[in-house]
Design brief:
This protein has 13 helices and five strands. It is an alpha+beta fold and 258 residues long. The chain has a five-stranded antiparallel β-sheet. Strand 1 and strand 2 form a beta hairpin. The chain is elongated and about 65 Å long. The two termini are 37 Å apart.
Length: 258
């Protein structure tokens, strides 16, 4: 989909806005919205930015809308190795390193592992995952299904998360395909507490952990906007003690620095 009119209609419908809803939010007339969606009116660069903000469209999609009308992209999509990204790399590394002995990772919008701290490298390394690997591919690995004691419940909540993330991004085929696959494994659990833990079986030990997700505030770069930091915490005292024993030796392997 490269036509501006189609893109605008797609995002308006994705956000479940009527033309009048969007007109009120963007402070333009519904007639003008209609004309832009039929190609009868040509939006200015400023109008595209205003509509994108009203619809909370991801930065990469805003660039796509600008390009569809012949405008240059407004938002950069820098490589992580660029100098301008050094402060962000340091922030990620500091967050993940200081989170040890608990696992912590950073992933992009397609669930590729951008960064892993030492405990995460050791845990996920058992599944053959390294920085650059796709966690979506891991979902198809029978080793994961065996390693996660409560796999049906984890599959259910991972499916819901994938669907939510895909919808927020306007529909991502890779996320939708992964959610469809997980639906064949998913089973909603009963009353298991305030958060669904993931229970990893490591030899004769079971590590029960829940996760938190953080993102950068006010991003103006598409790469930065799409990155998520996931930190895993022990869900019980036994897991806390086990992680301290396994990874709390005071000499964790540092993640890559700037």
């Amino acid at each position: 989909m490269t036509n501006f009119s189609d893109l605008l209609r797609h995002w308006r419908q994705t956000r479940r806005f009527s033309q009048l809803d969007l007109a009120l939010e963007a402070n333009v007339s519904a007639r003008h919205i209609s004309f832009m969606e039929t190609g009868r009116a040509r939006p200015s660069r400023e109008m595209i930015v205003m509509l994108s903000e009203a619809l909370t469209i991801p930065l990469s999609a805003r660039n796509q809308m600008l390009a569809a009308m012949g405008f240059t992209p407004r938002y950069a999509a820098r490589d992580w190795d660029e100098t301008a990204m050094a402060p962000m790399r340091r922030a990620i590394d500091r967050t993940l390193d200081n989170h040890a002995p608990y696992p912590g990772i950073a992933i992009d919008r397609l669930w590729r592992l951008t960064r892993m701290n030492a405990p995460a490298q050791k845990m996920f390394g058992m599944l053959g995952l390294t920085e650059g690997s796709s966690m979506l591919d891991m979902l198809h690995n029978p080793l994961l299904w065996d390693m996660v004691e409560n796999w049906p419940e984890v599959a259910h909540h991972s499916m819901l998360r994938l669907r939510t993330e895909s919808a927020a991004l306007g529909g991502i085929p890779e996320l939708d395909a992964a959610a469809t696959f997980l639906a064949t494994h998913a089973k909603s659990g009963g009353d298991i507490g305030p958060a669904v833990p993931t229970i990893f079986k490591l030899g004769d030990q079971c590590l029960s952990m829940f996760g938190t997700i953080a993102q950068f505030g006010s991003p103006e770069d598409a790469t930065l906007e799409e990155l998520k930091i996931e930190l895993f915490f022990p869900a019980d005292a036994a897991t806390e003690q086990a992680l301290e024993a396994m990874f709390g030796d005071g000499s964790p392997k540092k993640t890559k620095s700037a």
